[in-house]
Automatic annotation (TrEMBL):
The keyword Hydrolase applies. Its EC number is 3.6.1.23. It comes from the Bacteria. Belongs to the dUTPase family. It comes from Paracoccus benzoatiresistens. SUPFAM superfamilies: dUTPase-like. It holds the Pfam family dUTPase. The lineage of its organism: Bacteria, Pseudomonadati, Pseudomonadota, Alphaproteobacteria, Rhodobacterales. The keyword Glycosyltransferase does not apply. The gene is dut. It catalyses: dUTP + H2O = dUMP + diphosphate + H(+). This is dUTP diphosphatase. Residues 14-150 form the dUTPase-like domain. One of its GO terms (molecular function) is dUTP diphosphatase activity. InterPro entries: dUTPase, dUTPase-like, dUTPase-like_sf, dUTPase_trimeric.
Length: 151
């Protein structure tokens, strides 16, 4: 995978990387010019990760996820729940940040260079669809969902 460095501070902070031998995702930095407050329940704020990627292969994609500590301890989550970086997208990687805390709570202050999200790479399956009047195989769960199997 090729990576373009769009923010020169990445050279100082280090490329997004796996923090432990067992980490599944790389951490992404907040490439901000100055500290930024994310107000509780306000619209999501886009923050640059300072990089662009070229996958070179359409068989996998990147998913941007919140960092668990940021979400659990501070209330900083993604404004779009999960960000998808399609393998044919080569533009700037952006992180949609949202403060899930209740109105009246303190804003979350994000510092330049802070690790605020993570990206995991996943395989992409692209099935071909065949339109049918009835399925060739059925299961006992043809209908239901949304809690149909109990709590």
């Amino acid at each position: 995978m090729e990576v373009r460095i769009l923010d020169p501070r990445i050279h100082v902070w280090g490329l997004p990387d796996y923090q432990t031998a067992g980490s599944a995702a790389i951490d992404l930095f907040a490439c901000l010019d100055s500290a930024t407050d994310i107000t509780p329940q306000a619209p999501a704020v886009l923050i640059s990760a300072g990089i662009a990627l070229s996958f070179g292969d359409f068989s996998f994609a990147g998913l941007i996820l919140p960092r668990s500590g940021q979400g659990h301890k501070r209330g900083l989550v993604l404004g779009n729940s999960t960000g998808l970086i399609d393998p044919d997208y080569t533009g700037e990687v952006m992180i949609s940040t949202w403060n899930r805390n209740p109105p009246g709570s303190d804003p979350i202050t994000i510092q330049p260079g802070e690790r605020i999200a993570q990206m995991i790479f996943v395989p992409v399956l692209r099935p071909r669809f065949t339109v049918v009047d009835a399925f060739s195989r059925t299961t006992a769960r043809a209908a239901g969902g949304f809690g149909s199997t109990g709590a």
